[in-house]
Write a structure and sequence with these properties.
two-stranded antiparallel sheet; 3 domains; Transposase_20; elongated; DNA binding; Helix Hairpins; 15 helices
């Protein structure tokens, strides 16, 4: 068979538009790609990257997680009309609460139910933890509620709960698939290396590795940062110097994961929190300070994965202290 290479379409387009001729046909496009490969083939990295299936599983899981967030927002909006007081006393996403709302989807429905019926819904015999609030308290709250009786929205809420339960089942399925794939691909060592950074957990680690692939394809931290799309853009002309922004030309899925990881280490890791506080003290706004942390975190991760070392805040490589001058 033929070996395949994935090229950045932006680079191919720039190479193609370098020609003075404006003609564009399929033959000319194919010839331009062939000429480009002839010139840059020796510079292409030997990518022994992870199978594309790993990334596909991770992205499907990410999509489902986003759908869950959307459905939860819908449920909360519906409850502000149907039973706004409920969220103050129980976790509305507890399995017992969801079962209760599936059966009695509003304050009006709960008000007309007996205490015994509410207790039966709150204490499932099969699965789920019972809520700590008594059935009598929920009924009393429903009787005093300012909620409206709205049958159509009650029906929609029941369907949204069914959607949520379905998506949560799918999320668990794809999470287990990710874990199994990591074991089969011998990624356990890399996972443990990343998890040695306090504030980074299993899920974000697996998503990060799925998007990055083999760290060896990045021969410098700058290339990893550029692949993430948080590298600075610089525009200068004469005495004019434009404000730098991130390029956003990299992997948007990886960029989202790195942002979440950066927020996590600022919250739970003293080493990165000190760096974040220092950059805020220098005048950076929240988003720029988090971006500075993201740069530092990627440099740290690149060093750890290439050297196969765990994280030790007192032994950070010298290049980790490079300042992000675009911020």
């Amino acid at each position: 068979g033929f070996s395949c290479l994935v090229l950045n379409p932006l680079l191919v387009n720039k190479f193609f538009t370098a020609s003075l001729r404006k003609t564009k046909t399929d033959k000319i496009d194919a010839k331009a790609i062939a000429i480009m490969l002839y010139h840059i083939y020796e510079q292409l990295p030997d990518k022994s990257s992870l199978p594309k299936d790993f990334r596909d599983i991770a992205r499907e899981r990410e999509k489902i997680a986003q759908q869950i967030a959307t459905v939860k927002n819908d449920i909360e909006k519906l409850l502000t009309v149907l039973f706004p007081e409920l969220e103050r006393i129980v976790n509305i996403y507890n399995s017992s609460t969801l079962k209760l709302l599936s059966k009695f989807p509003s304050a009006h429905a709960l008000k007309n139910a007996s205490v015994e019926q509410i207790e039966e819904a709150l204490c499932p015999k099969t699965a789920g933890r019972p809520v700590k609030v008594s059935a009598q308290k929920i009924k009393s709250l429903a009787e005093k509620s300012i909620a409206r009786h709205w049958p159509v929205k009650e029906m929609i809420l029941v369907q949204k709960i069914k959607e949520l339960l379905f998506f949560e089942e799918q999320l668990e399925f794809f999470t287990n698939m990710l874990r199994e794939f990591c074991k089969e691909a011998s990624l356990c060592q890399d996972i443990e290396i990343l998890k040695s950074i306090k504030g980074i957990g299993d899920i974000t680690t697996m998503h990060f590795l799925a998007e990055v692939g083999n760290i060896e394809q990045f021969d410098s931290t700058k290339k990893l940062i550029a692949y993430c799309g948080i590298d600075p853009t610089v525009y200068e002309s004469g005495r004019f110097k434009g404000k730098s922004k991130i390029s956003k030309r990299g992997n948007r899925h990886l960029r989202r994961i790195v942002w979440l990881m950066s927020v996590g280490v600022v919250m739970h890791n003293e080493y990165f929190r000190k760096y974040y506080n220092r950059r805020r003290a220098e005048g950076l706004v929240y988003r720029k300070a988090i971006l500075a942390v993201a740069h530092k975190l990627l440099r740290t991760i690149w060093s750890m994965l290439t050297k196969k070392e765990l994280f030790y805040s007192n032994h950070a490589p010298h290049h980790l202290y490079e300042k992000d001058n675009f911020l």
